[in-house]
Specification:
The chain has 264 residues and is mostly helical. The chain has 12 helices and no strands. It is globular.
């Protein structure tokens, strides 16, 4: 198993590295590094399909994980494409800040930043690869549970994105804080359900040999969302733009897991 695992994973890593190199070239040309988010999200689909085609595990299992990953990947990639391109040529604040920090070294450092995204893409694709190498016939109860979690997660994430888009599309809401739907119960329901997607992949992978090692995937995503580029940066920018309105929203509303808001 392991020689085949290493061979296929390295091919997946090579694809991700080439993809990010091409995207870096486009980003330099259009002066908008935000397209890396689109490529990173959408990049999981071709890797998952490749693993499903090249793997020698149970065919129904391979088709199942390729479908789950592709639907999630292309939905998120499409959503980010609309968001990034709607603001183009204006660049996302995160990348604009990096340009100011890196100055004349921006293009070189951005190349390696994009390559780090390629490595992360390959590392987070490991659950799919282990699943595609599992020869055990018939799906196991854990896999059905994982699919159920995935369905809840993708529905919640799609709904949160749609509610936020609808709120922002209304000019009357300019400068206001979105508190409709799922956003009434969590300040970042999209992040919560995104994390739940990775929990689902881990649960499905746990039914395969050595699948338990992929616990690092939801753990890593949780770390990024709670401590790095997710909630901290989003809330800092929201406080800068909305001030006391968002501070009050912070006080009343759960930061991550949807829950009933505080009274008073």
């Amino acid at each position: 198993m392991w020689p085949e695992f290493i061979r296929l994973w390295l091919l997946g890593l090579l694809f991700a590295a080439v993809l990010m190199a091409v995207i870096w070239g486009i980003a330099v040309r259009i002066a908008n590094a935000g397209i890396v988010d689109i490529a990173w999200s959408a990049g999981f689909a071709p890797i998952a399909i490749f693993f499903a085609v090249a793997g020698d595990g149970f065919d129904v299992r391979r088709a199942m994980i390729a479908l789950l990953v592709s639907l999630w990947s292309l939905r998120l990639g499409g959503y980010l494409y609309v968001r990034v391109m709607s603001h183009h040529p204006k660049e996302d604040r995160r990348y604009a800040d990096l340009r100011r920090e890196w100055g004349e070294h921006t293009n070189r450092k951005m190349f390696w930043f994009f390559q780090m995204q390629a490595l992360l893409l390959a590392l987070l694709s490991v659950p799919g690869l282990l699943i595609c190498l599992n020869p055990r016939p018939l799906l196991q109860p854990l896999e059905f549970i994982g699919v159920l979690i995935w369905m809840i997660a993708i529905t919640g994430e799609s709904l949160a994105d749609r509610q936020l888009h609808r709120f922002r599309s209304d000019a009357a809401n300019r400068g206001a804080v979105c508190e409709i739907g799922l956003w009434h119960y969590s300040r970042h329901p999209n992040y919560f359900f995104e994390w739940l997607v990775w929990v689902a992949y881990f649960v499905v992978a746990s039914a395969s040999p050595f699948g338990w090692i992929t616990l690092y995937c939801p753990a890593l995503m949780l770390f990024f969302l709670l401590r790095v580029t997710g909630i901290p940066m989003t809330e800092r920018l929201s406080l800068e733009s909305k001030g006391a309105l968002f501070a009050d929203y912070q006080r009343r509303t759960s930061p991550f897991v949807p829950w009933f808001p505080k009274r008073g």
